[in-house]
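Fold these two proteins, one after the other.
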Amino acid sequence: MMLSPDHAVEPKSSPEKQRKIVYRTLGKTGIKVPVISMGVMNADNPNLVKAALDNGIVHLDTAWNYQQGRNEKMTGSVIKDYPRDSYVIATKIYDRARDREKSIFTKDAIEEGFLKKFDESLERLGIDYVDILYLHSSYTREMTLYEPFLKAMEKLKKEGRTRFVGVSTHWNKPEVIQAAIDSQFYDVVLTPYNFKQDHIEQMRKMIAKAADAGLGIVGMKTFAGAYLEEEKTKPVDPKAAIRFALKDKNVHTIIPGFTTFEQMEIDLAAMEESSNYPNF
C-alpha cells in the first residue's frame, strides 16, 4: 500500500508514554512527518529503531553506503514487522567516481551503476519502494545537476520505486540548494543546519527560498558536532540545538542520529517542549 501524500503517518502502536507529536509537511511531497525523525546511520540496535517507531517517529533515514550496507539490512529487519504505510523511509546513493579537485563526477559515474546500487538498497530493506531517494553528498551545482543520475532517479520515480527524489549536501550548501531549486526536478533537500554555522543567515534565506519553491527541507548535523569548542570539553545542549533548528518553520523535520534510548528520549522531549515556545 502506497502512502497518500497528505496523510499524517501514525505510529503502529501507541507508546507507553502518551507523547505530543508535532507534524510539519515535507514541502510539495505533501507528506506530514513529525519534526523529529531518525538518522539511522550510526545505529546498530534494531530494538532502538523499533522503539523510535513505537514512540511516534515515522521517518527513517539510511543510505546504501552506511555501515557497508548493514545499516539498510538492520533497518529492513525492523520495518518488515510494520505496515508499509506506517513509516516513511529514505535512502541515498553515493557514487565514489568523482574528481575532488574539479568537484565533478567522472565518466565512470554512470546511470546503470546508480540503478544497480538502488536495487541493492531495496533488497536490503526488503521493500518494493522508498519514499525518498537522495543523490548523496553533492557539493557543487554540476554534481547536483549531473544528467546520468537525474535520468536514473527520473526512471525510478516513473516506475514507482521511489515516490520522491532529493539531494543531500554537506559542503557548499547554498550552491547545491540553489541548483536543486533551479532544477525543478528535486522534491527534497537534506542539509546541515545548526547554530554554529558561520553562514547561518545565508542558510536561512536559502532554505526559505527552497521551501517557497516547494522543496521539502530535512535538517541534519543539528548538534554541530556535539561540542561547543574544539577541545570537546563543553557538550552541546541537545534540546537547545533542536529548538534552534525547529524554530525555523522552513525546516520541516530533522534527523538526529541517536544511538541510545536515552538520546532518543531527549530528542522526543525536545520536540514536545519546543511546541510550547512562541511562534513555533
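Now the second one:
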Amino acid sequence: MKEIYLGRQPIYDSALHVEGYQLSYHPTESADALEDAPLLDIELAHTRALFNTLIEIGLDRLVGNSKVFLGVARDLLIQGSLQQLIAAAPHMVFEVVADIVVDEPLLEALKALRREGYCFLLDEYEDNDAYRALLDAATYVRVNVASLPEPEMLLLVAQLQQRGLGVIASGIEDQHILETCQQLGFNYFQGRHFSQPRLLKFQGIQTNQQAVMRLVSALNRPDVDLKKIEALIAQDVALSYKLLRYINSAYFSLPRRVDSIQRAVTLLGLRTMRSWATLISLSNVESARSDLMTIALIRAKMCELLGEQLGLKQRDTTFMVGLLSVLDLVAQAPMPEVLAALPLEEEINAALLRQEGGLGRILACALAYEQCDWEIIKESGLDAAQVNEAYMTALTEAYRASNELLQD
C-alpha cells in the first residue's frame, strides 16, 4: 500500500468545542502515478485510497467520538458505490466538492442517499443555481469567509440557516476574522487561527496553580530531589488526590492499590511524573477549547517518536517539548510570557520559541503535520512512512491516555 499523509483538521462549534474533523488524503510521493490521468480518475482513486485507509486504521483511532468530514468523488455518488465502501453512520459527513458537475443524476443520487441517512456538506458554497439545487440534500454548508463582503455574507448565512443548515466558516486566519464570523452568525468555524494564541494580557496564576507550577519546575531541574517532589505533592490535597487516582486507574492496572504518595512517585518515575504534572498544570488554566489536552498528548507522543527516529537520547525532553507546545494556546498569551512562569532549560525554550535545534526540528515537523503542511515535512529529512506511523500512534495514545491523566 502506498504511504500517505492523512490530513486531520478540526471544525469547532459556537462554543469552540470540537464538532468534528475534516480528513483528507495526500500521497507522500512527489510524482503520483496518476498525475497524468484525467482529473475525475484521480479524484476517484484518492477517495478510494482515503476510505480504504480509514477502514484499515479505524475511525475511532483518528477522531474518537467526534464527527468525521470526508471528501467523496462524484462517481461514487452516482454509481451507488458509496455504500459498498463504507456504511453510513450518524457521525460521518460526506463532502460534495466545490467544482462538482451538478446535473439530474447527481441530484437524484444525493436525495436517495439522504433518505438512507447519509449526511452531506456542500464545500466552498457560492450562491448560484447549481449549488442552490443541492441544498435539499445538505446538512452542512461550508463558506470561505473571504468570498463575500460582510453585508452579503450576513444575508447568505441567514438564508442558509432558515433552511435548517449548519453553516461553517472556513479560512479563519486570526482572532479578528473569528469574531467577525461569530457576529455574522456562523454555526461552526475552521482555520489556521486555532493553532495560534490570542494576544491577550496574561492573567496571574491562581494559588492552586502556583503549587502545580512549582511541582513542574522542580521536576524539570537537573538536580531533581524525589523527597522534595513527594513533599510538594503532599502539601496540596488536590494534587495528592489526583496522583493517587491516576496511579490506581485502569490505565496502569496494578495488582495492588497504591495508597502512598512516596510509592506512587517511585512507581511512576520522573518521566511520567513530569508528563502528569505538566498536563495537570495545563488543565487548570481556563480555556474555551475542549480539545487542547488531546492536542498536547498527540504532539508529545509524536515528538517522542520522531526523536527516536533521529536517534536523540533525550526521550523525556522530546515528549515534554510536545506537551509544552500548547501552553500559549491554553493560556491565551504569547509563549515567552507563559514560559517566564515555568523555568526550563535553554534548549527547550529555543525549541518552543524559535523551533531551533534538534528539539525544534522535531516540533516543527509535528506542527507541520497538524497543519497539513507537507512541504515542511518533506524538507525535514524524516522518512514519510515513519512520520505517518508516528502520528497514528500518537492519536491512539492520546485518546487512550487523556481521560486517565486528567480525570477529576
